[in-house]
Amino acid sequence: MLSHREVLATLEMLKNEHLDVRTVTLGISLFDCASDDPSRFIENMRTKIGRLAANLVSVCDNVGERFGIPIVNKRIAVSPIAVAACPFGPEEMVRIAGAMDRCARDVGVDFIGGFGALVEKGFTKGDRALIEAIPEALATTERVCSSVNVASTRAGINMDAVYLMGKTIKRTAEMTRDRDGIGCAKICVFANIPEDVPFMAGAYLGVGEPDSVINMGVSGPGVVKKAIDRARASNPRLDLGELSEIIKRTAFKVTKVGELIGRHVAKELEVTFGVVDLSLAPTPNVGDSVGEIFQSLGLSRIGVPGTTAALAMINDAVKKGGAFASSYVGGLSGAFIPVSEDLNIAESARLGFLSIEKLEAMTSVCSVGLDMIALAGDTSAETLSAIIADEMAIGVINKKTTAARLIPVPGKKAGEKAKFGGLLGEAAIIPVPGLDGSGGFITLGGRIPAPTQSLTN
């Protein structure tokens, strides 16, 4: 239970520090919608989503208003379509994506995730069909998001899938050329993807999940920054261990808020409560930046030497505080470093403090990976695939989730700016050294074997 003092502190977070519930994501299994007829599958899907999600937005609004805590996004995550709709070809997959988009629009949610596949060890017919459909599906829909898991610590890295995703990202960028390749902002390539991610573009409902479930994404980078600033103002001699404790206590309060809201939403919708994802997810709004936390910890800006160590400390403290607050912590849980979605991080990238190499190093200790990275439009599919492969290797070897959301912006070069709008923000295009140096490696294909860390039985 929160003490009276902690309740007052939480109210201060709400009033001045950008505390909110970043997303309530309703997971819906589509496995009982399976059919050998695409029209029947779509009708089954439409009926089930409509039945379970009809009141999602109104319930979230009512619960948020009751507790005075804004719920920013309401979303849906479904079973991986490559599994649920396995018999169908690419054209039918595009039809299904269109139907998903209409379902999301009809119930009023921001995004619907799950147009994805799990191919860390190989492909089924449905996997290949879905991946082939991704460019057209994302170019012709507004709310559909796609995630493809190409690697795991247990299976290794499916390099054929990595190369295929590099080519898929290129095609998606071209098909959304008029919007700076924005379709790629809705594709995430994963290693070790969790089954209960509430955040887009990675959200989907795993095969081991309930038939319907509420998963929460709570975010508070502004809250963490203000807590550090207050503590250092009152005692400038605090060391990093003491500051870590402050971040941990702050994460505890934020997680308590998230679980409270999530349980009330789940109860009113009569579905299972799943997890609270603790990720510090920024927005392009001033005061809601992960990058500013690093400045509060004494670094001139995110990206200078010491950044990776600071990020490791932040991530660890957030997870410890959340784990103490709730027994149902899941999803990604840590700190996002989405370049275009955080004003401070985007500015550091523009000034050259955040290179592709530094961002990759930071992903070894953050909760996700290379997120919302704008690249030159002439970046080849082979180079994109090589960047993905490097990121997957970090996840596989370290037994953690990593991901890549790369956006080769058609017609633009390094140093120019890509504008995506809304929560996706804008970012300078980051240069990549050795643009033509990876093709010989990537085209070898095959599967990089799992590391010895996988032998845990």
Task: Describe, in plain words, how this protein is organized in 3D.
The structure is a single chain. With 457 residues, this protein is of the alpha/beta class. It has two domains: 21-191, Anaerobic Ribonucleotide-triphosphate Reductase Large Chain (Alpha-Beta Barrel), CATH 3.20.70.20; 220-271 and 278-447, Alpha-Beta Barrel (Anaerobic Ribonucleotide-triphosphate Reductase Large Chain). 44% of the residues lie in helices and 17% in strands. Strands 1, 2, 3, 4, 5, 6, 7, 8, 9, 10, 11 and 14 form a twelve-stranded mixed sheet that branches. Helix 6 links the parallel strand 4 (117-118) and strand 5. The radius of gyration is 21 Å and the shape is globular.
